[in-house]
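From the shared-data thread, chain only:
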Amino acid sequence: MRTKLTLFVAVLATALFGVGCASTKPDFTIVGVDHELALPLMSDGKGNLPWTNRDYRFIDIPEELTGYKYYQYEARSGKGVTLNIQKKTKVTILVGADTAAPRDLEAITKWENEGWEKIDSKLLYGPEPRTPKMQILQKSVDAGKLRINDYSEFGGIIVLTK
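Structure, as tokens:
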């Protein structure tokens, strides 16, 4: 009887809690930034603020970024970011892609030369009607430190996380 009860408890625990322990640790952290500070990426009418020092808001979020969170960045700071990568993962960032800012377009070329890949979709921010774009870039990286330099004129680097 005891064996049947033990088996029943084991099956019930597996059904309720799954097999093994799921990790809540992120694949990477930003040096000097609490990972709990990530904000949901939304454009729910008002939209979220991409930057800590500007009042621009996200206007249109591409479907493939649904469920992502982001870390605000100080616009025009030129600081860049350093990530501590815990395991092989894909890092996604948003960078300025305003055609009225030639330095943004030059910056994208520099990031591409460092192995970042452009994703077709773009994200809009503004206040409307002027809606500059942000380019989505991704890069597969191994565990270790990753330095992302800020080459842009305005937008800087906004790191996304799931």
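The first strand starts at residue 28 and ends at 30.
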